[in-house]
Amino acid sequence: MTDDRTRLHGPEFAADPQAVYRRLRQAGPTAPVEIAPDVPATLVLGYAEALQVLRDPANFPKDPRTWQRTVAQGCPVLPLMAYRPNCLFTDGATHARLRGAVTDALARVDTRELRTHLEETGDALIDRFAPDGKADLMEQYARVLPLLVVTRICGAPPVISEEIVSGALALFDGVDDGRGLDTAVAELVAAKRSRPGPDVVSWLLAHQAGLTEDEAVQQIALLCSAGSEPLQNLIANTLRLLLVDERFAGDLSGGSLPVADALDEVLWSDPPIANYGTVFPTREVQVGGNPVPADQPLLISFAGANTDPAVDAGGRVGNRAHLAFGAGRHACPSPAQRIARMTGTAAVERVLDRLPDLEPAVPAEALEWKSGPFHRSLASLPVRFPPPPQQIRPWLGSPAPVVRREPGPNRPAGRWTAFSRWLRGG
Ligand code: HEM
Fold first, then answer.
1. Can you give the pLDDT at residue 4?
2. Segment Disordered: which positions (predicted)?
3. Atom 37 (ligand 1): residue with closest C-alpha?
4. Please, are residues 271 and 376 in contact by the beta-carbon 8 Å criterion?
5. Does residue 195 surpass a pLDDT of 80?
């Protein structure tokens, strides 16, 4: 790229994004950036300007199709930016219909029952590494737990759940463009169509919006990705903060743990989705006094807007005015936010309850972050702790009856499969 656009891809940005936002902000509330090699975009860093864009769907539509025709196949940002017929990429009446169905289905989730499931699953994950006295809490805990929560609320039977988790992890790792996830979700939707249950997929299929099979598949695939990658980062970023930040890292075994406060702080200062909320103006528009070209992506820097000095005053604890969950018509639906907060808090509390003498295994400055323009995601979170006494969990002793399948193109037999078998007692 010939102009002086700041790169949001690559290790320099990942190492200290707030330094980049501070520098860009000096030139105004929007900045020209590059989100992948030769892919220009505009980043909105001002809090007021972010709200202006997010609350004006007429001037800032979500449909990326004209832009995406100009982007090379295989471009690393396409899996998260290319059009899909789901509520995230649609506008107007179609968006309202799809979002209404998703929101109503999520609102029926029993968060108390979900919390119990989450604690049991969290315990099973912790049991697995606890005897070692060390773990990578990103890889061995935060990365998988939210996916297990999503497959639970979707009522996925174990084999399909396994396929969904493998497909979603492959999508997050850029190994696959989401086709593996779509195939597994289509299988789940077909199963629920013939045998409904008390779960989000069945509620979505029965919704008065009358979703087609494909619409249902697309909305559920969105829940599997939108509902898990940010949650994994929320859990890991909150654990990191509690372990390394002097304001929070006290006596973690002290009893009254400030987990909810740490969660709020992360949502302000290290939001799991740092830059996203992509919109594609169809003609040149002005944002913060700067022209934004037509058919080029405009990204909201949720992380930059949250730390905009114009709003960065006063306490953050209990203050939900941050933009971590977006704003406007495409904001993260309230029932999804409720699930996210409950899951984030319970997942962190479970680790601290089980491993009270947890400490970081490397200095804070040695922790590495994954590169990429969108997420704020630790590459790993190594910790150590005195191994706790082993606990017997009778519920793990009765594996669910499952039909085993041979690995196929969409059924990789990786580490997750091995873990999943173990979780089921196999
Ligand atoms: C820490 C966790 C989460 C964060 C930080 C987060 C953040 C966001 C943000 C910023 C958006 C707006 C994106 C945009 O404007 O383009 C969004 C949308 C969405 N989120 Fe979340 N989210 C989280 C968890 C979840 C969960 C658990 C679910 C579902 C189980 C979920 C479902 C959705 C859906 C369906 C949308 C699209 C809404 C629409 O386009 O109308 N999210 N989320």
1. 78
2. 392-413
3. 88
4. yes
5. yes
